[in-house]
Amino acid sequence: MSARTSRFCPAASVQGAVLLAALALAGCEKKSAPVSAESPATPPVSAPAAPPAPAPTPALAAPATPVPEPVAAPVGSPYGDNLVPAGSGAVRTGQEADPYLAFAALTDDPDVKAVLDELRRGGPTKQIADRVKAHAAAAGPALLKAMWTDNTNVRSHAPTLLATLEPPITPEVGAAFNRSLLYEAVPSVRANVAAALTDYNVPATAGALLEVLEKDGDANARSFAAYALGLLKNKAALPALIKATRDKETWVRLRSVKALGKIGDAAARGAVLSATKDPNKLVRENAREALGRLR
Questions:
Q1: CATH of 235-295, one of 2.60.40.1120, 1.25.10.10, 3.40.50.2300, 3.20.20.70
Q2: DSSP state, 2?
Q3: What's the CATH number of domain 83-232, 1.20.120.160, 1.25.10.10, 1.10.3720.10, 1.20.120.1200?
Q4: Beta-carbon count within 10 A of 211 CB
Q5: How far is 147 from 237, CA to CA, in rounded Å?
Q6: What pLDDT tens digit does each residue of the chain (295 aa) get?
Q7: How far apart are CA 145 and CA 76, in angstroms?
Q8: What does pTM read for this prediction?
């Protein structure tokens, strides 16, 4: 092999390999095979794709707890189990109460039915009161039933309208008022029942009024019960009325002092005298007036 060949041929010898490297640096391309533009380029070797992550195993849904269908209260029942509900403030909480009367069953008189229907949609007005008085014979018994009907608005205002008629006081009248005083679950209705008895004195309600004064959770009901007891001049209520002159609610103290003045028993003098120093001006004024009536 000639020196010329060894100089230009890359595979001649070991020395030729060294020389080949030197020639590559010097630009000896003419002995190398040219790379055609049409020759396929060696594709780059890419990293193998990562295997797809396994799909998460779906969590098993907890079996749905069946929701029981609500049990409807019997038609006409004031409370689902015929008991006065706890927390209502009523005197006889937890006691059995009579079922409400259906509104449609209160009367067959078309005029009275129309008045009661208007009362159900709104409230007492002078026009309603006048119409009740115009049909007093049929309205009285209907209003007595309406004190325990299934419509709260009618139950609330029936005692007031009944008091304007002042029907004869019968055992049925006393029983109707007593039931509402002791078992009615709506505080505002109980207060209206007690307030009606400050215009319509029913002696048979004294025991229920006393229970309301001592135990009712509604201050308005207690205050009207106190005054109604005074109008009845019920001396059995003296201890409760004396205690009520120290009630936390102003109206209870005020009407209790007025009631003691109506009864006029000297046994209440100490309580009424203390009430002349009450923080409320109206209580003090009524206490001074009541003192002059005690004998």
A1: 1.25.10.10
A2: -
A3: 1.25.10.10
A4: 17
A5: 25
A6: 444 334 333 443 444 444 444 444 444 444 444 434 343 444 444 444 555 555 444 444 444 444 333 333 333 344 445 677 777 888 888 787 888 899 999 999 999 999 999 999 887 788 999 999 999 999 999 999 999 998 999 999 999 999 999 999 999 999 999 999 999 999 999 999 999 999 999 999 999 999 999 999 999 999 999 999 999 999 999 999 999 999 999 999 999 999 999 999 999 999 999 999 999 999 999 999 999 999 8
A7: 13
A8: 0.71
